[in-house]
Structures are given as structure tokens and as C-alpha cells.
Amino acid sequence: MRVVLPSGELLFCAHHARRHASAFADVAVLVQDETDRLLEEHGAPAR
């Protein structure tokens, strides 16, 4: 997952992004989550 902040960006695996979402939710300019796309492309069941 990609989290864009006013001062730059952070990249997280989906697990850690969900764990820390409350810390960046109010300040993030954009949260890009393509977890479902990755799961789909690799044949894993959607969560």
C-alpha cells in the first residue's frame, strides 16, 4: 500500500498499513491500496 503525505510517501505491506491506518488516516493525501488486484493476479482468494 502506498500512503502519500504532504511531506512525502510511505510504502507498506497491506498487513502493516492496516495496523497503522489510524496513525496516517487524518493526514494522508492519498491511500493507494491494490491488495485485491495483487490477490486476483496471483490466484489467491479475495479477502
Provide the succession of SSEs.
EEHHEH
Q: What's the overall geometry?
A: elongated
Give the spatial strand order of the biggest sheet: 2-1-3
The tally of strands reads: 3
Number of domains in the coordinates? 1
Task: Report the mean per-residue pLDDT as an integer.
Answer: 87
Helix percent reads: 25-40%
What summary fits the major beta sheet? 3 strands, antiparallel
Helix count, DSSP H or I runs of 4 or more residues: 3
Percentage of residues in strands: 15-25%
Through-space gap between termini: 15 Å
How does the helix and strand content classify structurally? Answer: alpha+beta
Instruction: Return residue spans where pLDDT drops below 50 for at least 5 consecutive residues.
Output: none
Taking all Cα atoms into account, the compactness measure Rg is 12 Å
In short:
The chain is of the alpha+beta class. The chain has helices spanning 14-19, 21-24, 35-41, and strands at residues 2-5, 8-11, 30-32.
Lay out the secondary structure.
Elements: E1 2-5, E2 8-11, H1 14-19, H2 21-24, E3 30-32, H3 35-41
Antiparallel strand pairs: 1-2, 1-3
Question: What this model shows, in words?
Answer:
There is one protein chain. The chain is of the alpha+beta class. The protein contains 3 helices and 3 strands; from the N terminus they run ββααβα. It has one domain. It has a 3-stranded antiparallel beta sheet, with no helix packed on it. A hairpin with a 2-residue loop joins strand 1 and strand 2.
